[in-house]
Amino acid sequence: MYEANAYRIKEGQETLILEFVDIVEPEDNNQWRLAVIFGGSKNIKSCIKRMNLGNITNGARL
Question: Count of CB atoms within 10 A of residue 59's CB?
């Protein structure tokens, strides 16, 4: 099983949003639900720029 970290990229700067993400579900109006293996989740409004599940140190960039 792969878990990844989710980052937001704004003006070229990466900011960690959530660690150990294992579920990414689309919601309405460019919103996403990010869920973690430990039971927590976070809803964000963003678009996905890149997702790398093959290398868990990179994670998803939003």
Answer: 24
* Number of structural domains the chain divides into: 1
User: What is the value of pTM for the model shown?
Assistant: 0.73
- Cα separation of 22 and 13, whole Å? 23
Q: Coil, helix or strand for 32?
A: strand
**Integer Cα distance of 53 and 42 in angstroms:** 19
Domain span at residue 47? 4-61
Question: How far is CA 3 from its chain centroid?
Answer: 10
Per-residue model confidence as pLDDT tens digits over 29-58: 889 999 998 889 999 998 888 877 665 555
Give the whole-angstrom CA distance, residue 45 versus residue 3.
21
